[in-house]
Specification:
The protein is of the alpha/beta class. It contains ten helices and 13 strands. Strands 3, 4, 5, 6, 7, 10, 11, 12 and 13 form a nine-stranded mixed sheet that branches.
């Protein structure tokens, strides 16, 4: 195998289609198919399962994807280090963010990066925290903000902040200013599904009371949860910052949760088992700075900064 074959294979596997990969790479589709065939013959194993809807990597193909990303990333890092030894960091940095966090930090982070590091190109992807953790482990993103500390070997994480969770109700509800979780055992709740970190946190809080939340609907979209609560289908528990606009315009009302309250953390995670490019190191530090500024300005409502030290990736 050579580097070009690895790049082509990775593009095909990530696109899920030889046709889409050909359009993205600007390479003829028959040429890409021939590259895959040559690789499979050389490795004596099938790498892709072909179907009418596209291609799916086999177990061997998934392994090649992971190793190819590592090799190509290391090559890019080496090239970047040499080119930018005496210059500003440059290159692409891929960041995975949960949707609610992206709404707060994506624009400030992009603006700060363009101002301080104009040669760095940010690629920001949004998804649920669990999906982002998988992408980070697979090498599809370079940095990620997660709602729980990353546990796989080779991934380091440190806590950026803790944010307050509140109970939200429709505007027609006479909501108490403060409510205990014990008083919510019979409240119908609309929550994200099981894989979502917020759901696990809420479930655990109720388990400590010897019970479980009364979940009447599951939906993995904060926007739709808020719409359903506003329409009177039940209450919910979400971060304060995510419901602040609706409380200000009167669409929703909130109750604070009685002491000690309910909080969740946000962690900045990155690979720790191999060297990082100067661009990734720069964006890691810049992300911490941007979050700190958002907390100090009060933009991130209901959140407070963690005092735990930042661990830099090894270079």
């Amino acid at each position: 195998m050579d580097l070009r074959q690895m790049r082509y294979f990775l593009a095909i596997a990530e696109a899920g289609s030889i046709t889409r990969a050909a359009e993205h790479l600007g390479v003829a589709q028959p040429a890409l198919s021939l590259h895959v065939k040559t690789m499979e013959e050389a490795l004596e194993t099938q790498l892709l399962i072909r179907s009418k809807s596209g291609v799916t990597p086999t177990e061997a193909g998934r392994l090649l994807m992971q190793r190819a990303r590592t090799i190509l990333d290391d090559l890019a890092r080496t090239e970047d280090d040499i080119r930018t030894l005496d210059a500003d960091p440059m290159g692409e940095v891929r960041i995975g963010l949960p949707g609610t966090i992206s709404n707060i930090i994506a624009l400030p982070l992009i603006a700060a990066a363009r101002d301080r590091y104009p040669r760095i190109r940010l690629n920001i992807t949004e998804a649920m925290s669990g999906f982002i953790a998988d992408w980070l482990e697979d090498g599809q993103v370079d940095l990620a903000v997660l709602y729980e500390p990353s546990r796989p070997p080779g991934i380091a994480s440190h806590q950026l902040l803790e944010e307050e969770l509140v109970v939200l109700w429709s505007a027609q509800t006479e909501a108490p200013e403060i409510i205990s979780l014990a008083d919510m055992l019979d409240v119908p709740l609309i929550l994200p599904s099981g894989p979502h970190g917020l759901r696990a946190l809420v479930e655990q809080a109720f388990v400590t009371l010897g019970n479980r939340p009364k979940v009447v609907m599951e939906i993995d979209s904060y926007a739709n949860i808020k719409r359903l609560v506003a329409a009177g289908y039940g209450g919910s528990i979400l971060p304060l910052h995510s419901v602040l606009p609706e409380t200000l315009d009167g669409t929703l009302v909130i109750s604070r949760i009685a002491a000690p309250g309910l909080k969740r953390g946000a962690w900045l995670a990155h690979p720790a088992g191999r060297p990082a490019t100067r661009a990734k190191e720069a964006v890691l530090e810049l992300t911490v700075e941007v979050v700190k500024a958002l907390l100090e300005s009060g933009t991130w409502a209901g959140a407070q900064r963690s005092t735990r030290p930042v661990k830099r990736p090894r270079s």
